[in-house]
Design goal:
Blueprint (H helix, E strand, L loop, with lengths): L6 H17 L2 H8 L7 H10 L17 H14 L6 H10 L4 H8 L4 E4 L15 E5 L2 E12 L6 E7 L10 E7 L3 E7 L5 E11 L4 E2 L6 H36 L1 E2 L2 E2 L4 H26 L6 H27 L9 H12 L6 H13 L1
Parallel strand pairs: 1-4
Antiparallel strand pairs: 2-3, 3-7, 4-5, 5-8, 6-7, 9-10
């Protein structure tokens, strides 16, 4: 099989890699996390001008990509520099559920950040676990509830909010999506381990009828599609981080000397490094497989298979790289410290390795 990128994707990868190499540094990432938005506005503007949000949308919505391998190319490069951006939560997740609103897609392609607020306290990764209630009123919809770990909430003027319009708390039917202004909710913002910011959001507001996205009670399928695409992006981003950690570790083994020679010549460390390289290549194969099946009938099966493998491989890469670096690998000043924390947190977004193993078994048996 031919795994080479198309000419257009190769150009996108090359241009993005050059831009990020010139624009991103360890110090800039640390400063961005402490800022009000959690990301570097100047870098985000540059990425928008390059067309990265447009790469998340199909041509029918004014973009030029939207396929699984477009997602992989973009997020692997973002992962290589470990930079937090709102691309995954805004253009990818919110953009997927807003596919029937080309006017909003145009706004996101231009750089608007729209947060995706669906997960709730206690939902334990289950997309149909929605306790937030939306009741129909004469003036629109009254929404009441809370959302957990809403990424880039402080940078968004609008949020896509999941709420239950009918049924019980865990029913698959009865979930709807609303586009809500951020000034209609209470936002408690905080920094994330590994970079970026998120928030706990409390809603007790009334929105107009036109805030409803799509048909009432039929949003779960769109949410699942957004979740699958976000999982693919997260896996690709993790792959990029693994590649950078690998490069940092190889460089350290070449230059750190002990007993008069580079420690990379010690056979025990060579074996550990070889094991890590094999696991990273296996992770790459899993991401390629997922992105190739992102629009297929067994999408969710491939999502869980890849996310489980990425979670396990990420843990191994972090542990082995820190072991081979010694104490310097834990310091905040050294780049590995940031990448280790950010890669560790990958397993806790969109379902950890244990969750996806159970989900894979359940889907396989269905």
């Amino acid at each position: 099989m031919n795994f080479n990128l198309t000419e257009e994707r190769q150009m996108l990868q090359d241009g993005l890699r050059r831009f990020l190499a010139d624009s991103v540094s360890h110090e800039k990432i640390a400063a961005a996390t402490e800022s009000a938005t959690g990301f570097d506005g100047e870098v985000w503007q540059g990425l928008t001008e390059m067309g990265l949000p447009a790469a998340m949308f199909g041509e029918d919505l004014g973009g030029f990509g939207g396929a699984g391998f477009d997602i992989m190319v973009v997020f692997e490069e973002l992962g290589r520099v470990g930079i937090p951006t709102p691309l995954m939560d805004s253009a990818l997740q919110a953009g997927t559920v807003l596919a029937n609103r080309p006017d909003i897609a145009e706004s996101m392609i231009a750089g608007e950040v729209i947060a995706f607020a669906h997960a709730e306290p206690g939902s334990r990764y289950e997309l149909n676990h929605v306790a937030t209630i939306a009741k129909k009123t004469d003036g629109g919809w009254q929404i009441k509830g809370s959302k957990a770990i809403v990424h880039h909430a402080s940078a968004a003027d609008r949020m896509v909010v999941g709420a239950r319009t009918s049924g019980s708390q865990t029913d698959r039917d009865g979930i709807s999506l609303f586009l809500v202004s951020s000034d209609q909710m209470e936002i408690r913002d905080y920094p994330l381990n590994g970079g970026g910011r998120a928030a706990e959001v409390t809603l007790d507001c009334t929105v107009r009828d036109d805030a409803l996205i799509g048909e009432a009670g039929q949003a779960l399928g769109h949410i699942e599609a957004a979740h699958a695409r976000a999982c693919a992006a997260q896996c690709a981003e993790a792959l990029g981080m693994m590649e950078t950690i690998k490069a940092l570790t190889v460089d350290y083994l070449r230059h750190r000397r002990q007993f008069g020679q580079p420690i990379g010549k010690f056979q025990a460390l060579q074996h550990r490094m070889a094991d890590m390289l094999i696991e990273i290549e296996q992770a790459r194969s899993a991401v390629i497989n997922l992105c190739g099946n992102l629009d297929g009938p067994q999408r969710d099966l491939h999502v869980s298979a890849a996310k489980n493998l990425i979670g396990r491989t990420a843990r191994l890469v972090v542990e082995e790289s820190i072991q081979m670096h010694g104490g310097i690998g834990m310091t905040q000043e050294y780049a590995l410290g940031h990448f280790a924390k950010r890669l560790t947190m990958v397993d806790h977004r969109f379902g950890d390795a244990d969750y996806h193993l159970e989900r894979f078994i359940r889907l396989s048996a269905a």
